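Please go through the protein record below and explain what the C-alpha cells say about the fold. Record follows.
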Amino acid sequence: MKTVILALMVLVLVVVSQGGSTNNNSKDDNNNGPCDHDRKKSKFPYEDILNCLDLTDNKLVRPARDYKKPTWVYVQMSILAILDVKEIDQTFVSFVVIYMRWEDPHIYWKPQNFDGLDKMTVPTDLLWKPDLMIEEMIEKDKDIPNPFITIHSNGFVEHVKNLMVVSSCKMQVYKFPFDTQSCTLSLKSIIYPEEELKFEVYKNSSQATEWTREIMSTESEWLFMGMTVEDRSVPRFHQNQSVVIYTITMKRRSLLYVINFLVPVLLLFGLDFASFVISDSGGEKLSFEVTLLLAVTVMQLILNDILPCSSDSIPLIAVYCIGIFGLMMISLLETILVMYLIEKDSASKEKKADKNRSLSEDSGDKQGNYDGDVKKWTRCACVCNVSDEPPTELLSVAKEDKRSQLMEESNSLEKHPDELSEAVKGLSRLLSRKEGRKPDYWTRVAKKLHRIFFFVYVTVSALFLVVLFSLWINAEDE
C-alpha cells in the first residue's frame, strides 16, 4: 500500500514539473520576437533578418504593443542653410535636416544570431513612418528623397529627411537694417492626435544651437544667433496634437546697407549744407537743391521696394529718409524766400534807374527848348528895332546892339545851363538817397534771415541725427 502511494506522489510531481516548464516556454515565446530563436550562424544575415521580420505585413498601421498608448517619436531639426529672407513677401527660405527616432515593436532580433549585426538599412517603403509636416510651410517642400531607413536590433527606427522649406515669417523691420528676426518652424503630425502620436525633443535648445552651428554651410546676408525648441500640445480641429516648435533667431549683416544706402543719403544731406555757401543772387543754388531733392526721392523709391507694407510701426530708416527730405525741403523754401527778397531789392533799383533816366531826358528837352526860345527872342528884338534913320546908320547901330546883346546872352547862357544841369543832378542824387533806403532794407533782412536759418538748420539737423541713431542702436525690436 505504501509503495502505491509513493508511486502516485512521484507521478503527480512529474506532471506538475512538466506543466510549469511548458508555461514558462510559452511566456518566453510571447515576449521574444520572431527572430529570437537560437539558430546557427547565418551566411546572409541581412536577408535572414528581412525574412524573419516580414516587415511588409505591418507597414500600414502605427506600430504599438497597446494601441491605447501613443507612439513616441523623438525629433531633432537643424538648419543647414539660410537661403533667403524676403521682407516684402514675409517668407523665410531655409534648408533643414530633420532627424526622427521611434520604436517599432515588430522589429527585434538577437545580434549574436546574425553575425553580430545590430542595425541595418532597409528601404523606407517597408516600414511605417510618422506623417511629419511643418505648419508654417506655404509652398510645396522640395524634398531630397531619402530612400532608406535604419532599423536597430532593439526595435528602434531612425529616419533623416532633407528638405528646402519656404515658410511664413512675420518680419519686424523697425530697426532695419540693424534688425534681428525670429522665425518659427512647427513640426507636427498631419492626422494623428496626441493620444496616438507624441513628439518629444531629442536635444535641448543649447545642444540644438551648437549642432546647427557645426553643420550650417551658408547664412546669406544673415548671421545665425541661436535656436530655441519646445514641445507643447495645441488644439487642432477638436483634438489636441503634439507639436515641436523651433524658433530660429538671426541678425542681418547691415554693412552693405550702410555703405549703399545710409551713407549716400547722408552725403546728399551734407551737400545741402554746402549749398549755403552758394550765392543767392543767381539761380544756381535753387537748381542745385532741387537736384538733391530728386536724388533723395530716388533713394526713397529704392527703400519702398525693400520694406514690407504690413509693418506694425514706421521703420526708423523711413523716418531717416523722410526727415532728411523734409529738412532739405525747408532749406529749399528758405532759398526761395531769400531770392524773393533780393529780387525785390533789384526790382526797386531798376525802377529807380528808370526814374533817373527819364528825369535826365526831361531836363535835356527843357534846356533845348530854352535855347530855341532865346534865339527866337533875339531875332524878334533885331526886327523890332527899326526907326526913321537911314538904313546904313540903322544897320550899323543894329549890328553893334546885336553884338553886345549876343555877348551878354551868350555869357548868361554859358552860366545858366551848367547851373541847371548841376541842379538836376543834385536833385536826382537826393531822390536816389531817399528812395535807396527801402531796397537796402530787404537785402539786409534777407542776409539776416539766411544767417539765422543756417544756425537753426544745423542745430535741428544734428539733434535729429543724434536721436535717430541712438534709437537705431538702443531700441528693441518691436
Notes: Helices lie at 2-31, 45-53, 205-215, 255-274, 284-304, 316-384, 391-474. The first strand starts at residue 71 and ends at 86. The chain is about 50% helix and 20% strand. Confidence is low (pLDDT under 50) at residues 12-31, 374-395.
